[in-house]
């Protein structure tokens, strides 16, 4: 059988197996639709959106100076003698009102704003990472159910075929043309096939539960469409450039940028902020009122143990994030090279099953049936050929599923910007989350 014919046959078989239950009133539940619904239902993504909003709000606040401080005071009030508790008689008693303002230098405000903007970019990178993980995991759950259902249907077909052999063996035995051993062998084969079908049914149920985790209520919706798992956009010789945009790599870059911005804030904090205070004091009748103007300057007597240490810590955090990024880039590069090799190997082996092993197993069943009917082979030989055929078909499905899961991890390694924009626009705070 030519390769392209066998490939088309498997595609058509899978489509029929997993979409046979589709009815006219049910919407198609494709892989892309599952991803879209997973994104719209993801609490993880909503949480990351709140994180971005929080960072943006803090960035606005970072550029503002501290609020002024109002002061009210009563100074030098007598507490004994003839003038005790009088606010008018003693010339030293004063009723004061004042205001104090901390004067933050513009360079320090700019450094704080830059740090907060870096926090916003980090939150956005983490949101992108969450989006990629949700898309990838939803795709893996969809594919897991897709191939579990395909395997289950294929096994059920084999159960029907073995059941026919049992009926034929019973008829032959009653007609005096068969042996009791053949009947027992056929019934044993049927029981084994039914046990295999029970296990496949359990795997389908588990796969539905796994997909429900990403798309609630999806277990009753039939899957539609076949994923195109034979092409990926990643190439071994350009992995470094392609992985530069990986969400985890970008998040580490943003972490390093945030730490460097924090170092600038720590450097600016080495020069303390001054405070200015103005106080107006009213004294008793016959005494002059007074004003006070004060300038307060913190004394940094242990800069080496405080401000300099904070600066050193931030610089160390920036270096840590930079080296972690380089290490993660190497790690992801090695992992993806291995995944590409495994993906190619799984597809090559799948094609070998489709073009060679499955056709030979099918021909073996035909030959075994002819030999059995001609009295040249036992029923056990025929049943063994059936089992070999189903094993070959299941192995092809397993290889196809393995290739599909590797493809999903490679194809959904990142997300186009338009998907992030569309998803962010659809996220709304849940009722009661915000005032």
* Oligomer class: single chain
Query: Quick one: CATH superfamily?
Result: Outer membrane efflux proteins (OEP)
Helix content: 55-70%
Q: Mind telling me which CATH architecture this is?
A: Up-down Bundle
Number of domains: 1
Which CATH top level class fits?
Mainly Alpha
In DSSP terms, counting alpha (H) and pi (I) runs of 4 or more, how many helices?
Answer: 10
Rg from C-alpha positions? 38 Å
Principal-axis shape: elongated
Structural class: alpha+beta
Uncertain spans, ≥5 residues at pLDDT below 50? 1-13, 15-24, 429-435
State the separation between the terminal residues, measured CA to CA: 66 Å
Task: Could you tell me the CATH topology label.
Answer: Outer membrane efflux proteins (OEP)
List the strand order in the largest sheet: 1-2-3-4
What's the helix-strand series? HHHEEHHHHEEHHH
Percent strand: 5-15%
Give a quick account of the main beta sheet: strands, pairing sense, barrel closure: 4 strands, antiparallel
Number-wise, the strands total: 4
Q: Residue-averaged pLDDT, rounded?
A: 84
């Amino acid at each position: 059988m030519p390769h392209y014919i066998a490939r088309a046959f498997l595609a058509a078989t899978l489509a029929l197996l997993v979409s046979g239950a589709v009815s006219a009133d049910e919407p198609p539940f494709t892989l892309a639709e599952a991803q879209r619904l997973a994104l719209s239902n993801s609490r993880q993504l909503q949480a990351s959106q709140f994180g971005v909003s929080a960072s943006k709000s803090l960035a606005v606040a970072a550029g503002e100076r501290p609020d002024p401080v109002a002061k009210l005071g009563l100074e030098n009030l007598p507490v004994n003698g003839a003038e005790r508790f009088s606010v008018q008689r003693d010339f030293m008693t004063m009723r004061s009102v004042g205001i104090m303002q901390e004067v933050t230098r513009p360079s320090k405000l700019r450094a704080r704003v830059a740090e907060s903007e870096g926090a916003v970019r980090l939150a956005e990178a983490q949101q992108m990472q969450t989006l990629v993980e949700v898309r990838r995991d939803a795709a893996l759950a969809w594919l897991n159910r897709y191939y579990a259902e395909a395997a289950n249907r294929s096994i059920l077909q084999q159960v029907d075929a073995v059941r026919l052999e049992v009926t034929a063996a019973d008829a032959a035995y009653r007609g005096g043309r068969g042996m009791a051993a053949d009947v027992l062998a056929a019934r044993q084969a049927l029981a084994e096939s039914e046990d295999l079908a029970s296990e496949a049914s359990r795997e389908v149920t588990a796969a539905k539960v796994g997909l429900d985790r990403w798309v609630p209520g999806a277990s009753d919706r039939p899957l539609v469409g076949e994923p195109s798992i034979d092409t990926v956009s990643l190439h071994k010789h350009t992995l470094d450039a392609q992985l530069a945009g990986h969400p985890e790599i970008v998040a580490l870059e943003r972490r390093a940028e945030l730490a460097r911005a924090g170092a600038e804030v720590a450097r600016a904090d080495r020069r303390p902020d001054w405070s200015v205070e103005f106080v107006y004091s009213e004294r008793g009748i016959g005494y002059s009122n007074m004003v006070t103007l004060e300038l307060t300057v913190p004394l940094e007597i242990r800069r080496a143990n405080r401000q300099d240490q904070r600066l050193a810590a931030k610089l160390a955090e920036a270096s840590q994030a930079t080296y972690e990024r380089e290490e993660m880039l190497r790690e992801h590069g090695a992992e993806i090279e291995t995944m590409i090799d495994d993906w190619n190997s799984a597809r090559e082996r799948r094609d070998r099953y489709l073009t060679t092993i499955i056709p030979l197993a099918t021909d073996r069943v035909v030959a075994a049936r002819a030999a059995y009917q001609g009295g040249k082979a036992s029923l056990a030989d025929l049943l063994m050929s059936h089992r070999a055929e189903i094993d070959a078909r299941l192995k092809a499905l397993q290889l196809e599923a393995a290739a599909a899961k590797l493809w999903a991890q490679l194809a959904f390694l990142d997300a186009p910007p338009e998907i992030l924009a569309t998803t962010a626009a659809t996220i709304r705070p849940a009722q009661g989350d915000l005032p």
